[in-house]
Amino acid sequence: MKRTTLLVTVAVTVLVLLAIVVGAALATTPSGVTATPLTRATLGKFEAKNKGIEVESVRRSADVAIVKVVIEPGGSTGWHHHPGVVMVPVKAGTVTEYDAECQATTIQAGHGFVESKSEVHLVRNEGDVRAVLFATFLVPSATPPDGLTISDPRPPGCHKR
Please, what is the average pLDDT of the chain? Predict the structure, then answer.
């Protein structure tokens, strides 16, 4: 009985480690992207509303972090998601955001997009000039600095990288 329990424990451990390694190996990596953290602060629990816009984090403490993202022509963020909500204005250039179904949305300078619900997506610069974005993250305070973006494998049926 003890031998069977030991074998099952070893098998489960091997499967878990294999899943971690394979998941990391399938993740897509960014290329031609430079992300520069600008600032981060803890907001704590809050509720704010003004003129029909509402933002709240009443169940847990939240941080705000701002990151400058430069994407070179042909560059890509790789497939990823975020642990909170991200508001992204495009300062210069044009980017194309692909969702998990590989649907494309083009965003030009002066416009932006919002990422939420842990949705897997990819942002690519398909133009011929450098794109500059400023990502404003609202994330749980426990999120580590390197946890603002979480790499994901490419969705099945989508060939964008």
Answer: 86
